Amino acid sequence: MEATAHARYVRISPRKVDQILMLVRGKSVAHALATLRLVAKGARPLVEKTLLSAMANTGKSQDVAAWYIARAWVGAGPVMKRMRAHAMGRGATIRHRTTHMTIVLTDQKTKEKR
Fold first, then answer.
1. What DSSP state is assigned to residue 91?
2. What is the pLDDT of residue 6?
3. How far apart are CA 21 and CA 44, in angstroms?
């Protein structure tokens, strides 16, 4: 059985979120939550919240040791473009990036192919 959770239009760069997802891919949910508590990055609460949402979506048992992160990926969302004053009367573009994140849990330990 699989359970999925999505976090869409999150106001953080996909690259920053992917650094955190690399730490938890393929691990059990219990091990992933313990790892996330030690990470001091700004994307950590977002990944943890999405992981707990996926765990709530399982619906069956709340035994975190029985569930594994089968797949976890991040993609780029829409970019919000803003202007800022720059030298000699010009404008500089500021890009506020957004993120779409997906975490899929499974109750069977599978070997991830990379």
1. E
2. 97
3. 9
Q: 26 and 69 in contact (C-beta within 8 Å)?
A: yes
What is the identity of the amino acid at 74? V
Mean pLDDT of 23-49: 96
Q: DSSP secondary structure string, 23-87?
A: HHTTSBHHHHHHHHTT--STTHHHHHHHHHHHHHTT-S---GGG-EEEEEEEEE-PPEEEEEE-G
- Give the containing element (helix H, strand E) for 16: helix 14-24
What number of CA atoms fall less than 13 Å from residue 74's CA on the CB side?
22
Cα–Cα distance between 55 and 65 in angstroms, integer?
11
Mean pLDDT over each residue of the chain, to the nearest integer: 92
Q: Is 108 exposed, middle or buried (0-12, 13-18, 19+ CB in 10 A)?
A: exposed
